[in-house]
Amino acid sequence: MGRVVLVTGVSRDLGRRFARTIAADPAVDRVIGVDVVPPRGDIGDVSFARADIRTPVIAKVIAKEDVDTVVHMSVIASPGPSGGRNAMKELNVIGTMQLLAACQKAESVQHVVVKSTTSVYGASSRDPAMFTEAVEPRVARGGYAKDAQEVESYVRGFARRRPDVRVLMLRAANVIGPSVESPMTSYLRLPVVPTVLGFDPRLQFLLDEDLLAVMRHGALSDVAGTFNVAGDGVLTLAQAIRRMQRPTVPLPPAALTGLGRLVQRVRVAELSPELVAFLTYGRGVDTTRSRVELGFTPTHTSAEAFEVFAAGLHRTFAAPDRLLAAIESRVAPVATTLAAPVRPVPVAPPRPTVVPEGGQHG
Amino acid sequence: MGDADIIPIGTRGRPGRGTGGRRPSSASRGLAGGTPRPPVDPPADPPAGDDDARTDTAAETAGTSAVDRPAGGGRAATTTRDRGPLAGVPIGDWLAAFQHAAAELFGEESEQQLARFLAFLRRRVTGDYVVDDFGFDAEMTERFFIAALRPIAQKWFRVEVRGIENIPATGGALVVSNHSGTVPVDGLMTMVAIHDHAGRSLRPLGADLVFRLPVVSTIARRAGTTLACSEDAERLLREGELVGVWPEGFKGIGKPFSERYKLQRFGRGGFVAAAVRTGVPIVPLSVVGAEEIYPLVGNLPSLARLLGMPYVPITPTFPLLGPLGLVPLPSKWMMEFGEPIRTDEYDAGAADDPMLVFNVTDQVRETIQQTLYTLLMDRGGAFG
After folding, report:
1. Do A359 and B95 touch (CB under 8 A)?
2. B320 touches chain A (CB under 8 A)
3. Structural domains in chain B?
4. Is B91 on the interface with A (CB under 8 A)?
5. What ipTM score was computed for the predicted complex, to two decimals?
């Protein structure tokens, strides 16, 4: 008798892909994907149940299908097409409450896995360089971090009330990948990347495939608790943007927030105050526990995950590198084949003086 | 973007006053003749509109641009890309000039040095360098920050270092120093001294103000600084790093000149707890000289509150002389690293014993204070 897994949030790309991944696992009998709208892509063997996790309907689905593993992937980072901030908060907080209430009633449920985020730690100048799971997150003022903190507190409450259920919370760093849509990825995809003047935050990334792998590992293992999951190492924002070869505009934080409102209106990206704080102070999380206790190591480091993401992006600011490469290609052979000690310095043929022209100053 | 036409203003040096229009007036056309000026050989103007030609050698450029010249009347549409102030000189010439200059400056080794420098520059431009979890960029620190500070340490402050053998060659250790000088120059000089004499990188712990300030925070992280909190301190010490801490904090650095070389309270002894927990030795460091660089004779507490700073200093030269007042006075510096205080014989619970922590804190503080007096006697005049 294999597992019966219920996955929430399958209309979104990561939820759908996770449902497919876990459906392919031999230890799993059946996978039920739940969401308000049907998933757009191929969901393979997953059976889709149209149910709103904000309503008690979800309890009926769990009871009817005899679900033993609930994977909650429906905590969203940006309002996106779901509507405004209120709709997002409702989905995140009320959805989690209803889902956990349903789980508490259902005797069949034995495992609850929740995808949380490292955003719960916030970002400020008073933070340690690396957060461990033992650090109590500062109370967030609003936005995604606040939602995630509330979701986590409900999950902890559920774990207290149902001690027989294994509850696993995975705090994932910024998930990145060629097809991932999130505030961070849409920010990094901007043709000219605005940065906070005078700050170079440390970032950590988790490749989408690694997120799916750790969720799968977490759903099928028997480890309980809260774990940070992130690719090894850190990348600073300046480093990341240079690797993408995109131009940057350093702006004062206030201007960046203003720009954030503007780009949000045109739906290009979203620069929430929370993201601006993150882009100012950055954040790092310690993944020792997830490595040792959970037994999961991401296949890609932060830098490698970013490379996968950046591979699909057009390099719009390669000129400095091209120029240096050109200089190097002229100098390097000279330096390596420096056999003759006295070598005439090549001087280009003398050029005539440029005749002054009227149009030159245009 | 990028291909926007630039409408030339002026008449390209032809007769006539010019209206800025695309075609000169009929009068000036009559004067200049209707056909475009034949390309002078070698060509008189930079290659326009051909990006590849710029990377070619000068000789080739001459050919291409002559061919590229449009046969029609007027001038070719010029794109913004090609109109930089340096666009007129082909890259070959720049390279030759650089090589020539480098050869003049550095002599025989120049080309290898240039190649090394270019490789370094290219790594920076493409982001192909490594920072550790704390944001420490070893290459940048060594090649840039330390190199820039070294002349100041050697020539301006004439830093004299004693007892460098007390710094362990490997493994974690906690360097505890007095703090003074209005601006934390003593921290920078300690970094240089330890890098140059002990061959290790000091990882300083800084106040959260450091990480709130733009530019400063970026440089601080790059240079290896991290927040002064027990998590970061213990993490660094466990990784076997040499950590620097200034427990007096703003009380020490912002004290008036009249109280110079009088140690302030040593925080809450958090640094001792961190050292005991990780079992690393504590190396007391006494720095003499930093007190005189910006003698703090006054403070503007209300302005400081307004700016959210711990203090706004008034020194004999600042703000009286304006930016010139920011130049530190050239006092003579001495640094003495004292005998390491071992903490590995305490058991793990000792860090939670406040009495023990206070005792060790006092021991470190007394050692530094006594060494300060000895060093002051040895130094004589402050600017000698």
Report:
1. no
2. no
3. 1-6+40-89 (no CATH), 92-125 (no CATH), 138-293+328-379 (3.40.1130.10)
4. yes
5. 0.86
